[in-house]
Design a protein that fits this description.
Layout lengths: L1 H22 L2 E6 L4 H15 L4 E6 L6 H12 L6 E3 L3 H8 L7 H6 L2 H4 L2 H6 L1 E2 L2 E2 L1 E3 L1 E4 L2 E5 H7 L7 H13 L3 E3 L5 H25 L4 H4 L2 H14 L11 H9 L3 E5 L3 H8 L8 E5 L7 E4 L2 E4 L5 H14 L2 H11 L2 E2 L11 H16 L2 E3 L9 H16 L5 H11 L4
Parallel strand pairs: 1-2, 1-3, 9-10, 12-15
Antiparallel strand pairs: 3-13, 4-5, 6-13, 7-12, 7-14, 8-10, 8-11
Helix pairs in contact: 2-14, 2-16, 8-9, 10-12, 10-18, 12-19, 18-19
The chain binds beta-D-galactopyranose (GAL).
Length: 417
Amino acid sequence: MKAMKLFQRSILATAAVMAVAAHAGEVEVLHWWTSGGEAKAAAALKATLQAKGHTWKDFAVAGGGGDNAMTVLKSRVVSGNAPAAAQIKGPALQEWAAEGVLANIDDVAKAEKWDAVLPPVVANVMKYKGNYIAAPVNVHRVNWLWASNAAFKKAGAKVPTNWDEFFVAAEALKKAGIIPVAHGGQNWQDFTTFESVALGVGGAEFYKKAFVQLDQATLNGATMTKALETFKKVKTYTDKNAPGRDWNLATAMVIKGEAGMQLMGDWAKGEFAAAGKMPGKDYTCAAAPGTAKSFTFNVDSFAMFKLKDAANIQAQKDLAAAIMSTDFQEVFNLNKGSIPVRLNMNLAKFDDCAKLSSNDFVASGKSGSLVPSIVHQMAVPPAVTGAIQDAVSQFWNDDKMSAKDAQAKIASAAKIR
Ligand code: GAL
């Protein structure tokens, strides 16, 4: 009797393994999540896929902001060897879809009711000609200021809410022997700083005219000059080792209290979390100066490429479904520093920074001050973003260039379409 039961059990177990194996596929996933917090979030994605019996083939290309990853992706696709899924965002999704290389994942989206659980502003970006071609993972807020509580205490400074206060705090930190602003001199980080400065100086309407509509009069106007001058003043509070520094090393300076502040999106929070630091206690998350009522959004998403192998196509669909599941959205975003993109999720496990982000996302959506991050590829096509980004960094790096000259360069870069 006992032997019989054991025999039956082993047959059942073998059948289960065979069932999984019959459908098991491989998914190669291109991403640029290599910092401490990012890697933990990517590991959650890998674990979710593996739990479905599939194989994860990691295709990580280091480099914050993803510029390197996009270069590598282009060469892979051109050589006819696209990965199954790639981290592609914003208007670039439409460009890739127009090339005819992306897969239609509408069957997954319909079965999982994506239209009902995604904000329309996000769902529209994930679709090409009405069909889903990508799955969104999160909503990052870019207009944040991260402050070391220890550094601010030592300097007797107050976390700033506008740009005048920012420079008062920066002076106090400097006097206390602390590097006021942790910065990494890479083009995308320069532009991340500039984007928040411009939003704080000019407000959401100015931002939309300048960086979404690329309105020439606005780009050449007085508010833009002021934004550039303020941006350049921020540089005077960075250290001489900033050029080339990776963003997560800049965050580490704030974590250690060597630096007072960093202007960076909330993937920085993933670094604080990975280092065991608590918001409120060890550090403060505040909207970038002058931007408390606005929200620059940056939605990470995975585009699915056309595949031939049936098992791999199934694995790809399972990945897309898993990405949008409530379990994954929770564990991934707790590590990544972002908030779930799926609506109506329970945020009980999330910290105050995430709750603030979630409230501000909804409130800014209602008041018209929810704006797409230009530097993080949400606002305009990649070629335009790249051209403006280069002009912004030229200005940041060249202390002889005037704000007016920089402004003319940016305005002419915005004409590349
Ligand atoms: C952003 C991306 C984030 C984060 C950051 C730094 O573009 O959306 O997820 O990884 O780059 O690498």
